[in-house]
Fold:
Amino acid sequence: MEQKISKLKNEVKAKIASISSAKELTDLKVEVLGKNGELTLILRGLKDLSESERPIVGKIVNEARVELEALFNEKFSALERKELDEKLLKEKVDITVDKNYTLGKVHPLNAIKRKVIDFFVSMGFIVTDSPEIETQYYNFDMLNIPADHPAREMQDTFFITDDILLRTQTSAGQIRTMEKTKPPIKMISPGRVFRSDEADATHTPCFHQLEGLVVDKGITMCDLKGILASFAKHFFSKETKIRFRPSHFPFTEPSVEVDVSCVHCGGEGCNVCKHTGWIEILGAGMVNRKVLSGCGIDPDVYTGFAFGIGLDRITAIIHGINDARVPFEGDIRFLKQF
Ligand code: DAH
Structure:
C-alpha cells in the first residue's frame, strides 16, 4: 500500500510539473483529490485494513494529500501569474501610435473668467469660493430679499429642500465673506449660478457670474466707478467708456446697472448694441446698510460697494456669440473657433 501511494504521488507530481493550463490542472486535481479521486478512494478503503495497519496507512495517505494539495496550489498561482503576464503583454496599448490626436484647450468662457480674475487680482482683490448649494438665508434673507419680495420670483431656482437651493447669484458669497472677515474687505467670487429658466437664445438654467465686494472706511461710488472704468478699458479697449443707469437691487442702495460703450461699433449704434451704442454688462451699487449691519459691520463706520458681472454675457459680446445655449453644448465645431 505504501508503495502504491508513493508511486501515485510521484506520477501526480510529474503530471503537475508538465501541465501548462489551469483547466488541465483542475481536471487533474479532481482526478486525484476529488470525491471519486484516486487518493480519496484509497482513504475510503482504509476501513478494510487491519486495525494495526489502518493508522499507519491513514497517516501516509493524509500526508500525501497535504503534500499534493500544496503542489496544486503552488502550480495554480504560477499559472495565474503566467496567464496574467501574457494577457497584459497582449493588451498593451501603445499610446504613441496615433500621432493625429487633437489637443484640448481652455473653454472660451473660462479664458474670459481667468482674464477678469487676473485684472481684479492685479488691483489687490482676493479670490474667494462660495458654495453652489446654498440656503435661503445666504441667497436671499441676508441680502435683504425677504420671503415675499418679488425678486425671489425673478430668481426662481432649483430647490433641494424648502430651505436648500442652487444659488441664483454669487452675491450670497458677499455675506459669507462679511460674516467671516472684518473690513477692510476686497474680494471677488466667481462661479456658476442657477435659475429655473427655459433655455433659449438669451437664457440658460445655469450661467456664470463674478461677484465683487469692497468694504472699508470712506468707500464711495467714485471708487466703484473708477474700478469699473479701469476694468472696461483693460478688458475691451482704451476707448471704452462706462455709464451708470439707476436701478434697484435689494442689497445695494443706491443701485446701478452698468453699460459699456459698444465694443463693436464704438458707440455709433449697431445690431449688437441694438442701435443704442451701449451694452449692459453688470449690476452694482453701494452695499445696503441693512446688509452691512446684518453681518455685524457698523454702517456708520464702514461703507462698501458690490458688483456682479455676467461672465457669459461678456464672453458673448467679445466673441460675437448670439445664442446663450451654444457655449454649454460642448460642440467641437464651436469650440474649435477660439
Ligand atoms: N446678484 C445680481 C443678479 O444676479 C447682480 C448684482 C447686482 C450683484 C448688484 C451685485 C450688485 O453685487 O451690487 O442679478
Q: What stands out?
A: Residues 2-91 form one domain. The two ends are 86 Å apart (CA to CA).
